[in-house]
Prior knowledge:
By secondary structure, this protein is of the alpha/beta class. The chain has two domains: 7-114 and 189-329, 3-Layer(aba) Sandwich (Rossmann fold); 123-187, Histone, subunit A (Orthogonal Bundle). The protein has helices at residues 19-26, 55-60, 77-93, 105-113, 123-136, 138-148, 150-155, 161-174, 178-187, 193-196, 209-225, 228-238, 253-260, 266-289, 314-325, and strands spanning 7-12, 32-36, 63-64, 97-101, 198-205, 299-303. The chain contains 15 helices and six strands. 52% of the residues lie in helices and 9% in strands. Strands 3-2-4-1-5-6 form a six-stranded parallel β-sheet, sandwiched between helices. Helix 3 packs across helix 4 (105-113) and helix 12 (228-238) crosses helix 13 (253-260).
Amino acid sequence: xxxxxxRVIFLMGPTASGKTDLAIALREHLPxxxxxxxxxxxxxxxxxxxxxxxTEELALVPHKLIDxxxxxxxxxxxxxxxxxxxxxxxxxxxxxxxxxxxxxxLYFKALLDGLAEMPEAxxxxxxxxxxxxxxxxxxxxxxxxxxxxxxxxxxxxPNHSQRLSRALxxxxxxxxxxxxxxxxxxxxxxMPFCERFDVVQIAISPRDRSVLHERIAVRxxxxxxxxxxxxxxxxxxxxxxxxxxxxxxxxxxxxxxDYFEKRLSYDEMIERGIIATRQLAKRQFTWLRGWQNYPxxxxxxxxxxxxxxxxxSKQEIVRCALNFIEPAAI
Length: 330
């Protein structure tokens, strides 16, 4: 490990790429403790649709930042940064290496680049944005954002409703764009993450996108077979949850919720769930393809197949990851 800076490992990738399996396997080779970087795994009672590690897996390999919120409680990137920094410090104090694993790229980015202080949410402003979206569509809202903050609009897909709504809300509430607030924050920010830590970044992914699409379809159908409808039914029956909450809007949960609301048929729910998961994977790829290569922490791609399309064994994938991690310690 770098003599000056304590080590931190980032393990990123699109959904269904094998991040969790690799993280658990790495624990057999390195003195790592796992920190989940996932905006849905923070919620209790949301296990099947989030592909949460099983009770047995968590008993053998604990993950920090799993099951720390009720689905009625929103969880932000700022919340994550505060929690992750605390967990990183505690793991380093134990003489171990934090391994941050997940697919919520915004959270990784927030750790690396910091977050500007943003105004509190305004329900009235957000409701107006939601009404505009319902009448004119989210691409219209995206254009409204682009008119005032083109830099942030360029980072957000026109169909990413939650981020679009928040970015436009910030401007309408504060009179300042997210870009302005970020710029102001950078002038007074603490030492950047990559200057405080020896960071190793790995992105795991199939080489062929069609392989991922097939995995996503199989996994979603398995979630249905394993009781996803019963899981969402229990949340639906609570009566205090609604579709504006981030937990309910999570991929898979929103489609099953719409099925219970009779907005989708059973077959439509399955189809929309798979499509939404593929769209999530596409957004994750977009984040990673544009990922900044920090001079001291370049992004290392770990493909799970050879160029000839032959799948790597679990042992070969672990060996590839170790090859990225261990030279960085020299």
